[in-house]
Structure formats: C-alpha cells, structure tokens
What we know:
globular; 348 residues; 11 strands; 7-stranded mixed β-sheet
Amino acid sequence: MTINEIKNLVRPSVMALKPYSSARDEFKEFDKDLIFLDANENPFSNGLNRYPDPQQTKLKERLSELKGVSVSNILLGNGSDEVLDLLIRAFCEPNQDEILILPPTYGMYQVLAEVNNVKLKAVNLSEEFQLRVENILNSVSEDTKILFICSPNNPSGNSLNSRDIESLLQQFKGLVVIDEAYIDFSSQASWLNRLQEFPNLVITQTLSKAYGLAGIRLGICYSSEFIISNLNKIKPPYNINELTQQKALEQLNSTEVFKTQVQQILTERNVLERELRNIAYISEIYPSDANFILVKVDDATKRYNQLIQKGIVVRNRSNQVLCENCLRITVGTTEENTNLILALKSIK
Ligand SMILES: *Cc1c(COP(=O)(O)O)cnc(C)c1O
C-alpha cells in the first residue's frame, strides 16, 4: 500500500484534529532544574507531585534500543487494550466502517468494536487454527478498515503461518494489526523486523505476559510514523502514569530476569504437555507457542468445576467457536503445575 492509501484510511475528523496541548507538551524540558509554575501542580515534592512525561521519552528510547525500532515508530498505551481502542477510534467511522476478526481469538477486539459502534465481521480460523486467506479476502469490503491477527493466537496458543500473514499484508487494503502479546514465548520471529516493508502493518506487544507486569498496564504499538502520529493525536495526554513508566523502565533494564523466567516457563510448558498426555479424559492437546495450553476434554464444565473444588482455576473456553469442551491452562510455577497434574489425575 502507498502512504496516500493509508492516509485515506484515517477518519477525516482525526486527520483534521489538532490535539490537546498540555503544559508538558508546550514546555518539554521538565528534566531541567527550573521553577515550574505552569501546570497547577502541588509544589511540595513527594516524587509524584508532577505530571508524567506525556511522550514517555525515556521508556521509548529504551524500547527503541531493545527492539531496533525508532522512537517515532512507537506509541505506548494503558495496556494493549488502550492501543487497540485507539486504533479503532482513529481508523473506523462509527456506524459505517467495520473491523475483521478471526475467531476463536482474543475477546477484546469485538468488545472494542461494539463500544465504538463499529461493525464486526468474523471469518473463523481453520480446524487447525490457521488463516483461511481466500475466505478472509473474499469477506472484505470497502468499509473494512482493520484486520486483527493474533499470533501466537489466544486461546489456541499456536502461531499463524507467516506466509499467510504476508499474503494478507500484501493483499488487504487496510490496516493489519498483529497482536504479539505472546511473542516472547514464541519460536517465530516478531514482525517488527518487517515494519519498513509494509506501511499497513501495526504490531502490538505488552508487558503483561512475559515481562510479568500485568499490574502496571503497559501496551506497546509499533507502526509507521504516520500511523503513530495519528494515534498520538487522540491518546489521552497523560495515559501512562509515572509509576508505570518507572517500573517498566526498571524491568526493561533487567533483561536477565526476563530471559530466565521465559526459559523457565517454556521448560515447564514442555513438562506440562507431556504430563497432560497421561490424562485419559483429555482427548487433544493443541500445540502451543505461548505460555498457555489449550486442551480438549470430555466435559469442560464438569472438569472446570472439579478443578475449582481442588483450588485450581483454569479458563473454560467452550463457548468459543472451534473450542467445544476446551480448557485453557496457563503455565504456572513448577509447584503449581505439579499440583495441577495431581488434581487432574485425582478427579474421576
Ligand atoms: C493478554 C493479552 C493482551 C494483553 O493486553 P494488555 O491490555 O496489554 O494487558 C493483548 N492481546 C492478547 C491476545 C492477550 O491475550
């Protein structure tokens, strides 16, 4: 796609928008030792009495270094959920445009479409949880602005075939959002390396899974400078609070902890996959490229309740298409997984 085609995808009102300019936008040198009387803050210092950096520059610089993407290609959100919402709000005209999702997949795409009065089209994945490229392309209309691809996919756990994704990036004339929430657990490369090749490519990542910081709410969006600048226009000025910025920076500087934990989770996932094969009422263990495993059982509601009785909570995904009688199990610590296996073996 050309940059002009991308420009035509943005909602006209967003194209024309002049964003709110905060005190910290107008005077940016807030690291300097100056007297700040411009933002109606309380002057008595407690570490948090000042507004946070609206552009999160330090954090973006660290991400830029780690991921090899420039700062102008990064937008941060209050979780990826905020990023996904900003994308819909920047590109989809309510009551007119639509998004395309590929069930079974992450539930937030649908919720965000509904909240924003944006139409939803769905093309199911194949039985192997892979993309049906022809069906997807055939269901696209002029109003289809965004295609959401989740890889590794939640709840199935597998990565989607990269040749299929590439083919969609080339043929679909809208934004292709690749949700890489689980990419750090994956054997597949991130699409980040291909950002320059596809002007319609948007990648979302998060600190909520492999980085162990679901509580601070930090989502990351990587895309072209043009797309990022339009998302920047509509984001709330101070959407990433000071504590989150500090904690995220700290975590991104301790990459050893991150690597060790990811490795441990992957080792545990293998153990769990092997142990699950010995449970008679589990008929299918779907291959996982993430930190969870989807399994098919004889009666998901019954098994779910039995596990609750044993003090273990998994996710019942039975109501999703292609996931009849499926439970989604997150990989825990060695001890938690051992308890899970013991519980699964003890229930009749
Ligand atoms: C967990 C998850 C996220 C994370 O969302 P945050 O708002 O960043 O916590 C995003 N996408 C998918 C598919 C997920 O499973």
